[in-house]
Amino acid sequence: MHVLVLGGTRFVGRAVTDQALAAGAEVTLFNRGQTAPELYPDLETVVGDRTVDLSALAGRRFDLVVDCAGYFPDVVARSASALRDAVDRYVFVSSVSVYADQSVPPHEGAALLRDDSYGGRKAACERVVLDHYGDRALVGRPGLIVGPHDQTERFSYWPRRFTRSGPILAPGDPTDPMQWIDVRDLAAFLVGATPSGVFNVVAPPVPMADLLDACAAAAGSDQEVVWMSTAELLAAGVDPWMGVPLWIGDPQWSAANLVDGSRARAAGLTTRPVGETVADVLAWDTGRGGPVEEPLSTDDEKRLLAAH
Length: 308
Ligand SMILES: NC(=O)c1ccc[n+]([C@@H]2O[C@H](COP(=O)([O-])OP(=O)(O)OC[C@H]3O[C@@H](n4cnc5c(N)ncnc54)[C@H](OP(=O)(O)O)[C@@H]3O)[C@@H](O)[C@H]2O)c1
What we know:
alpha/beta; UDP-galactose 4-epimerase, domain 1
């Protein structure tokens, strides 16, 4: 199998590339050669800017293209059109942010945004891919994507926090559902023998307390965990959208961690245990070295705990 990866050198595309290589595929990357160009010295990289010109791919043929980081429908239209006769299948990495109503658990048939937001544009990109490729298209809608090389710090904050001293602020209720997809499980689904169609790509939700237990275990920590309720955090002026990492205090987003992933599971999605993701993220985080700008600073955490 010859896989073309549009992107491939930051986070999702990197996992897709690694997965395709592990599966024995030949991989060609298409990007501008700006992001981590040293990553895959043995792979062919076709250099180009997808917003302008994909002619460097003219005349090429691939079994599969994985479009890892398409954000604008006109840009996705450019690649979808340029590759229409060059690939058998077009895989597009979308997002659960496409759903118009995040207050009820979204399933694949739910209404989509049609505005100019990130989610609305991703939904428009999906339409472009589906219009061009029909039943040759696979649209994956991941939830929060986590794992090694995730630079957003939303997830890595938690295992890392358990390596620091002092009482740990835990947001909301211990039973609050948390949901994500490990980037490696996402990649396996996207380049595996997945049927065509549109799929939410998420792991089953787990209680926040289970995530924190896994973090404590990975870090070998027995530090005190102090739960602050959503009402308390909101009263303290904390930003309801991840003012504390992973916590969502906005009722309009109450089902953001309850996405229905059953369709993908039936189509072959498997998800690794929480403890494995946490341990691998902590190992990656420890290994990368250097200071990290914490999404919740030590001072802010202390201030909130003092008001508890
Ligand atoms: N993080 C989350 O929780 C989350 C949740 C749901 C969905 N998503 C989706 O996950 C994806 C994340 O993508 P990623 O950044 O990790 O993908 P990636 O493929 O690992 O990295 C982005 C790639 O795009 C290339 N690129 C950027 N601009 C380009 C251009 N104009 N022309 C050609 N190549 C270009 C970059 O290389 P160069 O800079 O060298 O060109 C880089 O290789 C997105 O589709 C996002 O919507 C994320």
